[in-house]
Specification:
This protein has about 375 residues and is an alpha+beta fold. Strands 1, 2, 3, 4, 5, 6, 7, 8, 9 and 10 form a 10-stranded mixed sheet that branches.
Amino acid sequence: MDAVPTPLSLKLVAALAVPPVIVAGLWLFAGVLAPGYRWAIAAAVAWFVVAGFGIGKLVKERPGLRPGVRATLFATVAIVAGWNVYTSTVATTVDEAIARGIPVSEIVPGAPSPTAGGKDALVAAVPPRDAEDAATAKRGGREPSAGRPGAASAPAAGSSVAAARTAKPKPASGARGRPAKTASTPPRGQAEAAAPASGSATVDSPGSPGRKGSSAAPPAASVGPTSPNTTSPAAAEPAPASSTPSPPASAPAGPVERAAGPVRPMGHSARGRAALVELPDGSRVVTLEDFEISPGPKVEVWLVAGPVDGDEDAKDPVNLGGLKGSRGNQQYDVPAGAKLPANLSVVFWCVPYSTVIAAADLRAS
C-alpha cells in the first residue's frame, strides 16, 4: 500500500497519456525513420517492446499508477497491432465500371470522332468521284456523267448538222455489251422547224432522204447566231456544291486515354494497369484495370511527378483519396483544376508507415 495515496486525477492522466505516446513513437520510428515497408514493420515491433519496458520501469516505483497504465498499454498495443494485422491480411474487392478511352496517339486532328457520327460519319468522310455524280445521286436522277461509258451527248443548239450527217453513228456498248441509252432525239418535224429558228443549216444525208443526223458536232462548229434560249443546259446550270460535310474539328465525343502504365510492386506485391483518362466534359479520372495489391493499413492513391523509385520521389502529391479495395477495376476522380506534370506516376502510399508500396509510371498513350 502506498505511503501517500495516489490521487485519482493523476491515475487518469497517466493512463490516458499512454496511447498518444505509443502512437507518436510508432509514427516516428516506423513512418518517418524506417527506409521501407519491411523496415517499418520491424521498427513497429521494436518500438512496442521498448515502450512497454520503459513504461513498466516508470510505474514500478508508483504502485498506485501501475494498474491503469499497464492496462492502457496492453490495450493500445493490442488495438494497434490487431488493426495492422487485419488491414495487412484481409483483402477487399471493389469492382466498378471504369472509363476506357481512345489512346491519344490514335486520334487524327480534324478527323471525325468514331463515337460522334457512327457509320454515317465514316461514310461521309469518303469523297464522291466528282461533284456532278454527288448532285445527280442527291436528286435521284438518271443523267449520265460526261465521259462515262454508254453516255451520248445531246445536240448543242446552233451547231452544224450538215457536218454530222456524213455517217450513221454506231451505238456505243454498255458495261455488259448491251447498247447503251443515247440522248433522246426530237421528232423529225420538230427538228426541221427548230433548225431555221436557230440559224443552223440542215442537209439530208446521202441514202437517207429527209432524215436528220443523230450525232452532234462540237459547239465550236456553230454557224450563225444563237438565241439565248438555245444555250446548253450543262453550260447554263452552275456546278452544284459538294454535299459532303466538312470533317468536324471538335474533340472526340468519347473518353480519351492520355497516359497509361503498368502497376509495379514496391514493398507490396502488385499488378494491373493504371491510366489517366479525359472524359468528354473535360474532367479527368485515374482508372485501375485488372488491379490487385497485397493489403496494407490505410493506403492512399496519389499522383506525383514521375518516375518514382523510392519514398523520396513522392513529392507534392495530388491526393485522389483512399484505396477503395485491394482487387478489381476502380476509378478515382482527379480534382478539378489540379495541375499535373508531364511525366506522371500513380503512387500507392501507406500512410501509417509513410512509404510507397506500389507505383505506376504513366507514359503517353
